[in-house]
């Protein structure tokens, strides 16, 4: 049993590492192939640029070496937890990312809590009140919310809750727990709105499918209270697709905070990435992308790992 | 067996000895051309085993579920379903739930479908009114070995026979007075089937339960129960004691059911399947619903609205030939001979007629 568990974990980890390795190469190659020459930027612009100066900069930053050698050097450093120095700020990339990442992570976690609670809640409501006006209202409202781009939602939220009502601050990320929550509420809400439609609809459909099972009718025929039927049979059995969808949406959010961070003046990794790409800051862009991919893989792996707990038959089906 | 009485059952105003009393139950579904159930009447007394027999779609499961106040969506019911003297039709909300949670319990046809695959066996029993310790006792009482371990297991870890015992334990957890066994043994292999049947019979004797036993197997029904109701196209066509039904079936459909299944030591006798097909919900009948498939069909059968005709031994059958007292009750022998002749001359006659009506 312990051996089987160790084998499963080992296989999972190997898969994660292989995915990360492949992703790291794609990221490195993509940034390498991006238009624009970082050496020009590093040398201080095209004015007064001599070929000798350019070659010197290239050699200094190892930009004259072939792609694979550069990749190997970068990977070797990454494995030793050295992400290099930013071309632009000359700081350690790790420090830059570490300073920005908590804001993004808090934003994504907050948005996840919001879309899970609101989205799953709305989906459960729609499923329980299926084919009534409640169902239609949930579908209509979430579709409307999803069809509004997040930057429009952000502006609307700011002008209403921030400016008119003055309930929430309009910009910045705040300090302390309450300050952070207050500052991140509007950004998290505008991030979560787009996910509501997807999550609530997946929840509704999974619940409707689960409610059609014979064991639900059997429980009803045995006089099990309706509350318990919805909670312990319908929702419990619908959790698989719901958790998968919530995990995927959350993982996607890690890479999709740019617009909201910009709109609310938050300094997270999204705005860091955009800045790095605009200034050909290779090490920063690569590190941020690698972090996003890692986050995505970690979240999806966790979701996979949770599945046997949700459905004990999955474990038996796996070899 | 039908004489067993349980003291204290049947409150004031109840029929003297009926635990379940269904009277003229008619059930209509939107979009169906005929009622799913048409004037179904039956009774089950405490301690009695009553079988409900018929082909798929004859309405036997629907009748049994009516005892729980469980109807298909959109169904409109009329008539009366009384359990222990109290009307079940028209119960809603909490009172309906309370009725289902006590008194009547259904043993499902497919135990694997009746149990939530992601929850533990113990949860299934606790949900139906047992405590944790009672759950272990219940599993032991239905003959499941190692009950302490079973309560922590999940359905996919148990065999079909074990699961059917779990489902029966779940039905008993509510301390019911009436068990509805809906094809409870049909999905099991023969030895397990015999075990489960013996278990149900033992439980009935032990707790004085009424048992409504639903099956498509007329031989099993006649051997296992005290009384048998035969259903066809949503109607009860014959209601007899098991012995009388087996030795002298009165309704041509019952006779057909008996001659179309093989019996031991009877290998020389040819089997006679009933021609045609069981009617669907889109088939309507101006007269007797069985007339298209019946070897004894008379012109009057096409328009004869079925009524229950009393038989000398106390049973009833809904057949025009029995209503007409001049005519002798057809015997099994004459049925077989005449039907063989009919099948020989026009093999697909019944099917063709049925399809014409269908269109």
CATH A-level architecture of the largest domain in chain A: Orthogonal Bundle
Tell me the CATH superfamily of the largest domain in chain A.
MetI-like
CATH architecture of the domain at 15-96 and 180-185 and 210-359 in chain B: 3-Layer(aba) Sandwich
CATH superfamily of the domain at 15-96 and 180-185 and 210-359 in chain B: P-loop containing nucleotide triphosphate hydrolases
User: What count of structural domains of chain A?
Assistant: 2
The biggest beta sheet of chain B reads: 8 strands, mixed
CATH topology term of the domain at 15-96 and 180-185 and 210-359 in chain B: Rossmann fold
| Number of helices in the DSSP assignment of chain B | 14
The overall pLDDT average of chain A reads 85
Structural description of this entry:
- The complex is a heterodimer of chains A (319) and B (359).
- In chain A, 35% of the residues are buried.
- Helices cover 78% and strands 0% of the residues of chain A.
- Chain A is mostly helical and 319 residues long.
- Chain A contains 14 helices and no strands.
- The radius of gyration of chain A is 24 Å and the shape is globular.
- Chain B has 359 residues and is of the alpha/beta class.
- Chain B has a domain at 15-96 and 180-185 and 210-359: Rossmann fold (3-Layer(aba) Sandwich), CATH 3.40.50.
- In chain B, the strands form two sheets. Chain B has an eight-stranded mixed beta sheet with strand order 6-7-8-3-9-10-12-11, with helices on both faces.
- Classes of the chains: A mainly alpha (319), B alpha/beta (359).
- At the A-B interface, α9, α10 and α14 of A face α2 of B.
- Chain B: This is ABC transporter ATP-binding protein.
- Chain B: It is a peripheral membrane protein.
- Chain B: Keywords: ATP-binding, Cell membrane, Membrane, Nucleotide-binding, Transport.
How would you summarize the topology of this molecule?
The complex is a heterodimer of chains A (319) and B (359).
Chain A: H1 2-33, H2 38-42, H3 51-60, H4 67-79, H5 93-128, H6 133-147, H7 150-164, H8 176-211, H9 214-221, H10 226-254, H11 258-263, H12 269-278, H13 282-310, H14 312-317
Chain B: E1 20-28, E2 37-44, E3 49-53, H1 60-66, E4 76-83, E5 86-87, H2 93-101, E6 104-107, H3 111-114, H4 121-127, H5 132-141, H6 147-150, H7 160-173, E7 178-182, H8 190-207, E8 210-215, H9 218-224, E9 227-232, E10 235-241, H10 242-247, H11 252-259, E11 309-310, E12 316-317, H12 320-323, H13 332-345, H14 349-358
Parallel strand pairs in B: 3-8, 3-9, 6-7, 7-8
Antiparallel strand pairs in B: 1-2, 1-4, 4-5, 9-10, 10-12, 11-12
